[in-house]
Amino acid sequence: MFCYQCQETTNNQNCYLRGVCGKSGVTASLQDMLVFALKGFSVCAVKAREVGESDADTELFVAQALFATLSNVNFDDGRIVELIVEALDRRDQARGRFFDLYEAQHGEAFTGVLPEAATWYYVDGTQEEFEKKGETVGIDADPTLDADLRSLRELIIYGLKGLAAYTEHAAMLDNHRQDLLVFLQEALAFTTRTDFTVAELVGKALECGKYGVDVMAALDETLTTRYGHPEPTQVALGVVDGPGILISGHDLRDLEDLLEQTMGTGINIYTHGEMLPAHAILSSRSTRTWATTATPGGCNRRNSPAAPILMTTNCLQKPLPSYADRIFTTGMVGWADIPHIPERPQGEHKTSAP
Question: Is 18 exposed, middle or buried (0-12, 13-18, 19+ CB in 10 A)?
Fold first, then answer.
């Protein structure tokens, strides 16, 4: 494998045997294949939009699937394969709509050249086929590409992954930002070009940064409108008597749903890692009180109390046998053989208690 998508890469260079996050070479190739499929999908979606075709559900899918390729989010190879197939199927639908509308508007068939990502299709649709293709479309797929151009292109892709994550978070709180989703597709499509210059890449990276600030502002507004502004809060540490559920990650809506669903049951809710700041937002507004347990490492998911664990967003590492039978994932998070609570469509964000 060859990956340098996060700040924790081996020797601060790249991960080349196994990811420090726990990612295997197989997973790395499948994630590269998913990004390739999303690039092709975006090319076709941008073309379709040029002739008046748009699909909000399809646009949100791009953000969700790209979010799944971030560090410590989804290492479930089976689900990644499903996302690849869905991306390719949606791509072909978008491409077909573009061809039909183009011909209807121009009186002739489209004769332009589309990049390989917009036309490649699987034969058998097996994990092995996608893994093999993924090995040819990763970061170092084109050794003739200038190193500066490659680095700037990857910088854009990593920025888009962050943009996708925050955009998905906002959408799950019913704030659907069409402008962000459109830019996400346009920028992914841009990275399929082979004739870009350093100046063009720098310009696109800066534009991505601008939208990154926009999406963080949108998410902040969405959260504070729904939950209010954070307040200094006394947080209880440790474990209390009675059954409990530990929730980790970043998704406050998942925590809100969990608090509602366990109300009156006697089940204690514990926060973990990045979920700790929720106490400063929800504790004074919730009819529930809950305990907390915090760990020093934000991405440390290898130690936990003896309770069911709900993982939202990230960061997930390989579960230890001591708790592998009581951990659940939701949203875009995934690990093979761990029960997954299906994704919630926009406007129906509900997480069932495990």
Answer: middle
How far is residue 188's CA from residue 134's CA, in Å, rounded to a whole number?
17
Cα–Cα distance between 326 and 310 in angstroms, integer?
A: 9
Q: In which residue are the tokens 């997954």 written?
A: 340
What gap in Å lies between CA 5 and CA 32, rounded to an integer? 11
Kindly give the pairing relationship between strand 244-248 and strand 74-75: unpaired
Q: Which of 328, 220, 351, 317 is nearest to 22 (CA)?
A: 317
> Dihedrals φ, ψ of 79, to 5°?
-70, -35
> How many C-beta atoms lie closer than 10 Å to residue 128's C-beta?
10
pLDDT in tens, the chain (354 residues): 777 777 777 777 778 778 888 888 999 999 999 999 999 999 999 999 999 887 766 788 999 999 999 988 999 999 999 999 999 999 999 999 999 999 999 999 999 999 999 999 999 999 999 999 999 998 888 888 899 999 999 999 999 999 999 999 898 888 889 999 999 999 999 999 989 999 999 999 999 999 999 999 999 999 898 888 888 888 877 777 888 898 988 888 888 888 888 888 888 888 887 888 888 887 655 555 566 654 433 334 444 557 899 998 877 888 888 888 899 999 899 998 889 988 654 444 433 333
Q: Helix, strand or coil for residue 334?
A: strand
- For residue 347 the two structure tokens come to 């406007």
Per-residue HEC secondary structure of 220-262 comes to: HHHHHHHHCCCCCCCCCCCCCCCCEEEEECCCHHHHHHHHHHC
- Distance between CA atoms of residues 302 and 280, nearest Å: 25
Q: What is the pTM of this model?
A: 0.89
CA–CA separation, 158 vs 6, rounded Å?
Answer: 9
For residue 64 the two structure tokens come to: 């969700």
